[in-house]
Design goal:
Number of helices of chain A: 13
CATH superfamily of the largest domain in chain A: Response regulator
CATH architecture of the largest domain in chain A: 3-Layer(aba) Sandwich
Largest interface: A-B, 56 and 56 residues
CATH topology of the largest domain in chain A: Rossmann fold
Shape of chain A: elongated
Number of domains of chain A: 3
Strand content of chain A: 5-15%
Oligomer: homodimer
Number of strands of chain A: 13
Distance between the termini of chain A: 81 Å
Radius of gyration of chain A: 25 Å
Mean pLDDT of chain A: 90
Largest sheet of chain A: 6 strands, parallel
CATH class of the largest domain in chain A: Alpha Beta
Helix content of chain A: 25-40%
DNA sequence: CGGGCTTCTCGAATCGATTCGATCCGCATG
DNA sequence: CATGCGGATCGAATCGATTCGAGAAGCCCG
């Protein structure tokens, strides 16, 4: 300890912390000594142990990091979160979520890393091994877009309501044959049309809710097409399958904008005009410049606010309070990719 | 401490660490007691203090997180890095880089967070305030794509050579009027054509090197167009400016694929055919499905390997070794967006 | 039956900062 | 001159795990 330098032990602490009664002259002396000894300031580890706080918020991505980051939704929420946490002196530790089914279900970091609070970015069913682990470790947790649970703080959006509104928008346009392209059902990540049996095994809450929104509006999709991830290429694959078969739907509702843009690309590829031949709608309200000249019809969710809401939940948990579940509003945003149903 | 439960103090440690001489019966007894007391295992903070290691690698994004994540290059490198670090028991702590010029140059986390090693993902000139801070704190650092410095480990790619090769490819196709769209020059983030005076103030190494590659091939760009960030919309803006003026270039070399795809979109928008009317080339070798049917001509860099190389450098630093500077190879990948110069 | 050896368990020190209470000093007041 | 008071500084305990060396118990063999 650099205290040997100037004079004392605990006084040095006062000198650095700034608070507490200390003569200016003494502080100066201590700081000068620290400089000359190339002492870089208090060791964070000591402080953390004493305080019982690490200042770290573990963010468990719902997926391999690579895929998670390719999803602008995660990225923008994460950015909003980091912006809220920064001023609180909290840092974001990335914890990989469930990998491929071959890997262990829980990343070793989740078992051993120091974190004051955890944020689970996706999924999170009741018996989720991730939540299981966090519960065992006693780490307060914020669950984003997951299955509501008593001991876990929740932040989400009104995706069910938004999806219903979007569906009614298409009904108003006269569409009757409506297909839907969904997010993954579970960690298994299969893809293709999902029959009733498969649909009854739908595990991930977010997928289920968005699907329920379509049903709420009174629509039974001609096809429920499951994808292994929310990426443009998965949407394109789904689009090719849906739009090249017989009984082509007149509208395709996608559970994310990336999937929807993939469907638009597939339609272009097949020589179909959007929206004259087929309407396509997404979810998230991303600003996809490269889809020009099309502007996706979508349900916009407030991404930065979502990050901020998560941040607020985190700080509530740090103060020992369990925050109220947050459900942020969404807004239908009509673009150029939906239009009247072809006759 | 849960040691009061079963029997002893230090024995409990042995029971959990698994190593060391301990009777199976005793271990069982301790673990059982831990379970019944809902003790969640050793507190990481204590372990970290004792070990003098936090197990945390701070990754300083060269930009606001939002922008950083919208860049697939950063994301994929980060993913490769996390994959390498995971098995070593190391976690990635996100540290926001320089924000807008209005914000403080250095994030508070950089000053106070516990990290064993830091990775600076971008930029990093000699007098970079980030490196300055890390140096003062004595944190070993890996600099990615930055200005070489004696006390900092370096990982980079041969972007200068790759750019030269790409430029020669265009020369072989008969192009003479070649413009170039660059990454930002500095934190200032201005945009527009950069004259000689402006070019002499180019601060960021990566931009400088890629520009130098063009010159190496013997080409003086008709215009050097500076952008504020490597995003599609910035490329589109640059493309509109370059392609709608008089003396339109016959080829545009972009310092990133996202910029290049923006230029392609701008060309489409202006009714120009790619590559018949104008050739466009990028850098990074991303897989941009949504640009279909075009496939971008680009210089591919090994993103996952780059992440792995950074991980290797990190673990070398943790062992007290200063790793050799790594320069990963790149490869020209011809797509459909470049072709013979129009006559 | 005792010496020597192995195997396990325990105490105590250590990592580094924070914090509470105690002490000490100088100055002012009765 | 003595007492009181306030401000500054210091000691010691504490956070929780790890680790080394010492000691104790049990066992084998002479």
């Amino acid at each position: 300890m650099a205290a040997a330098a100037g004079v004392s032990v605990s006084t040095a602490s006062l000198a650095f912390s700034g608070s507490g009664p200390i003569a200016d002259a003494t502080r100066e002396r201590v700081l000068a000594a620290a400089r000359s000894l190339a002492y870089a300031g208090p060791n964070p580890l000591g402080r953390q142990l004493r305080r019982g706080r690490s200042g770290i918020v573990g963010v468990i991505m719902g997926d391999a990091l690579r895929r998670a980051f390719r999803d602008p939704v995660s990225s923008q929420v994460l950015d909003g979160l980091a912006a809220t946490l920064g001023p609180l002196g909290l840092g974001v530790l990335l914890v990989p979520g469930p990998h491929d089914a071959s890997q262990p279900a829980v990343d070793p970091l989740l078992e051993s890393a120091a974190m004051d609070v955890a944020v689970q970015m996706w999924g999170g069913t009741t018996d989720d091994p991730v939540l299981e682990t966090l519960r065992r470790r006693g780490t307060p947790t914020v669950l984003v877009e997951g299955t509501p649970q008593p001991d876990v703080a929740a932040v989400g959006i009104d995706d069910r309501g938004g999806m219903a509104e979007l569906t009614r928008h298409l009904l108003d346009l006269g569409h009757t044959r409506i297909a839907t392209v969904t997010l993954p059902f579970d960690r298994g990540r299969s893809s293709g049309p999902a029959d009733a049996a498969r649909q009854s095994h739908l595990v991930w809450e977010i997928t289920r809710r968005r699907l329920a929104g379509v049903t709420d509006a009174g629509v039974t999709p001609t096809t429920v097409y499951e994808t292994p991830a929310s990426l443009v290429e998965n949407g394109a694959a789904a689009g090719r399958a849906l739009l090249s078969g017989p009984d082509r739907p007149t509208a395709v509702i996608c559970q994310s904008d990336l999937l929807a843009s993939g469907v638009v690309l597939a339609a272009r590829e097949l020589g179909l005009r959007v929206p004259q031949d087929v309407s396509v709608a997404g979810f998230d309200g991303l600003d996809l410049a490269w889809l020009a000249p099309d502007v996706l019809t979508s349900v916009a969710q407030p991404l930065a606010e979502k990050g901020a809401a998560i941040g607020a939940a985190v700080s509530a948990l740090l103060e020992g309070r369990m925050p109220e579940p947050q459900v942020l509003p969404v807004a239908l945003r009509a673009g150029t990719t939906t239009g009247p149903a072809p006759r």
